[in-house]
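# nightly structure sweep
# worker-07 picked up a monomer target from the shared queue
# config: single-sequence mode, recycle default, output format = structure tokens
# input follows
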Amino acid sequence: MRKRLKHTVQGWVYLDTYVHLHGNEQLRLENCRRILEYNDILVRLQTLDMIIEIWGTNLRVFDYNDSSVLVTGKISAVQLTEKS
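# output follows
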């Protein structure tokens, strides 16, 4: 019940995480909290309830503002891990 209520409230205030993938060269993540790790092969991002790892080559982070981030490069894998 509590988890369902949390998800409903997140939807009302637009705190859900949205991942937009354009081919294997561009990923936009909305409602990003912070960048945990960033180098040319791995970008780790924290959202409200997940850690998102983006693996690839020549990765770059652009347009980081208060709620979204754009990752470009050759993306080979995206891993989603729920925070406990």
